[in-house]
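Handoff note, outgoing to incoming analyst
You'll be picking up this chain. Sequence as last confirmed:
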Amino acid sequence: MPLVALTGGIASGKSTIARRLAEHGAVIVDADQLVREVQAPGGPVLAAIADSFGEGMLRPDGSLDRAALGTRVFGDAPAIAQLNAIVHPAVRAESARRFAAAFAADPDAVVVYDVPLLVEARVDDPWQLVIVAHAPADVRADRLVGLRGLSHADAAARIASQVPDEARLRIADVVIDTAGALDDTLRQVDELWERLDEHVARRAGAS
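Most recent structure output, in case you need it:
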């Protein structure tokens, strides 16, 4: 029952890899989606964010103003640490629940945790495999400018605010090179899936 972590820097193509793995049958648990869920109105996480950073972090309907929060903590290491201390434990608990539910439903499932902050928050978890989506910083900056409309300065700042590529590559069991054509990225993911599928088949045969 492979528990796989998938990570990568901003605009690295991680979501493309996750979608392809899902097409092959992997169960994808999206850390960003979990963050949005645990920050929903009425929950303790959102209340703690408002207490720590002010009611200005809330929209008139009581939901989180993500843009305001992002502006508040961007580039402020102590504020980011404070926010992470609020959010990460809740996300960790909910992700563990999702993993357990997936394996209870199918003991031979391949469960992939799509998690941007693996190095920062989850590197010591018991992953069977760590996949890193990788493209050089200049390629990712061009994507941020061309696809998301950021300025070159903002793109560079977003990339610089994350851990260096070297930190992610150091923990990688598999690196998917996403700098080239989409077909090349998908081919690498397909080859990886064959390896994962063989692992599951061997495990099933041994049980």
